[in-house]
Write a structure and sequence with these properties.
The protein is mainly alpha-helical. Helices cover 52% and strands 7% of the residues. The protein contains 11 helices and 3 strands, in the order αββαααβααααααα. A 3-stranded mixed sheet has the order 2-1-3. InterPro entries: BTB/POZ_dom, SKP1/BTB/POZ_sf.
Length: 244
């Protein structure tokens, strides 16, 4: 008899107490302007979102009719959320995208960052701490895989408009680590008045950073070390930090 493959040797039997139940009432969630329908168990939504937990616990119209709408979010973002609550992963990466070069690489990076930012926006709206933490981690993994930073005008505008404190801090820290040489595209002529607080925050962080470093360099290396640990930007309501 031949030696079984690693895949066949992988343990498939699990304790039945860990079993995910797929029984129970469902609700239809209509997402985006297109009202793309998703049918989801109420119990799973409630356990992964404070927004849905409150809605489904009370006699709101959505709970009684079994239909909820999320017109300001994208079906793609909700698809990522669904995969997260059922499978525990953030599916945003394009296969071999980070192996591209030149303009193609930058385009693939921008596309994935947009997906992740849409997912972070949804996580914040749904008040899903686990999903938001996972999407923040995915953002950092994307930066590490592509060896690029999301410091373009379009991505900055999108992040600032979302008005999520932890995400604003992430982008501020990216700009601080990039150093002033990367800020040239954001002159007074192109500056958006609504971003004033964002740049003031960068100035404060840059002063502290420059006091602690002789020079701001090796940006990506910093991303992969404690200098920019995703856990720093996670929500920890119980006070416990990430295990990794």
């Amino acid at each position: 008899m031949s030696e079984p493959s690693p895949a066949k040797r992988r343990k498939v039997r699990q304790t039945d107490s860990d079993l995910q139940s797929f029984a129970g009432e469902t609700i239809q969630v209509l997402v985006g302007a297109s009202e793309t329908p998703f049918t989801v168990q109420k119990s799973i939504l409630s356990s992964n979102s404070e927004y849905f937990e409150r809605m489904l616990r009370n006699d709101f119209k959505e709970s009684l009719e079994g239909v909820s709408k999320l017109p300001k979010h994208t079906p793609e973002a909700f698809e990522i959320f669904m995969n997260f609550i059922y499978r525990g992963n953030i599916y945003s990466a394009t296969e071999a995208g980070s192996q591209l070069t030149g303009k193609d690489k930058h385009t693939a990076f921008a596309n994935e960052m947009n997906k992740i930012l849409q997912a972070i926006s949804l996580a914040n709206y749904l008040q899903s701490d686990g999903f938001q933490n996972a999407t923040i981690t995915a953002l950092f993994q994307c930066v590490s895989d592509y060896q690029l930073l999301p410091t373009t005008r379009k991505l900055l505008d999108k992040a600032v408009d979302m008005n999520i404190a932890s995400l604003t801090e992430v982008f501020q820290d990216f700009f601080v680590l990039q150093g002033s040489g990367g800020w040239s595209a954001f002159s007074e002529e192109t500056a958006d008045p609504s971003e004033a607080d964002f740049w003031k925050g960068i100035a404060k962080k840059a002063i502290i950073e420059l006091r602690n470093r002789e020079k701001v360099n090796h940006v990506i290396k910093a991303v992969e070390t404690r200098d920019l640990d995703p856990c720093k930007y996670h929500i920890h309501r119980d006070g416990k930090k990430c295990s990794n």
